[in-house]
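To the team - S-adenosylmethionine complex, inputs and output below.
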Amino acid sequence: MTLKEAYNYGVYFLSANGVDEADFKSKCLVCKCAGVKNSQFHQHSGDEIITKRFSDMLWRVKQGEPLQYVLGEWDFYNSTFYVGEGVLIPRPETEELTQLAVDFLKDKKNPVVFDLCAGSGCIGLSLAKEYPNANVFLVEKSDKAFEYLLKNAKDVPNAQCVLDDISNENCIAGNADLIVSNPPYIKSVEIDSLQSEVQCEPRMALDGGNDGLDFYRILSSKWKSRLKSGGEMLLEIGNEQGNTVSSLFDNAQVIKDMYGNDRIVKIN
Ligand SMILES: C[S@@+](CC[C@H](N)C(=O)[O-])C[C@H]1O[C@@H](n2cnc3c(N)ncnc32)[C@H](O)[C@@H]1O
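Output:
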């Protein structure tokens, strides 16, 4: 079967099974099977692909598995990250936080960065790649997510991955110029009502406790004091948490995302 034929079949199969964005998903899957970028689809439309692999992937998407897990990787900021069961899929909103962090670190000499609740490492590793002179420490508690973190950090010499709980503030020594975190922030009771693809993601990556604020309290009580003078914290938040999260810190400013929702709290 050629790439084009497989794509057409995939669109038909996914649509017939009620999967949304069938054309985009089919294109991503055929291109993954052919080992080409989506932008090279037309150029390679006559290439033969391994039909068995493609049909297995289609089946997994039809069963409700997130496309990103089936592909095994996802683009974030300027690079591609390994993802799969057990690790949160990097989101576009988090790229906005990463961009603010990149802007903050510009012109800083040998900055120290902590990425707390690092998951795939998408924020901290993007910063480490952008600034080879930075020292980036990434803390993650889940064994499964940590496997992805290590894999993603393999060729990033200025990144140090730490398997620990951020409640243990001694898991990293020293102070930071910048602390970034996208912690779990969904209220425990709301998790079961999230859309089914999100429910495939690890609960540990989502659950922020009864009021969704457990991790911000830890960040405030144990990590804010670890900022060097002139340092900054950038925290991703849920769109209804601007006031509550900023009230946990002095000098906090709420920043909106591209959709106009509260998304980031910046603390100086
Ligand atoms: C919302 S995800 C964010 C992952 C990644 N930073 C991102 O933006 O895609 C939160 C991460 O925190 C991790 N985590 C949960 N509890 C933790 C704890 N007590 N200490 C460290 N990491 C924790 C989860 O396993 C998950 O990988």
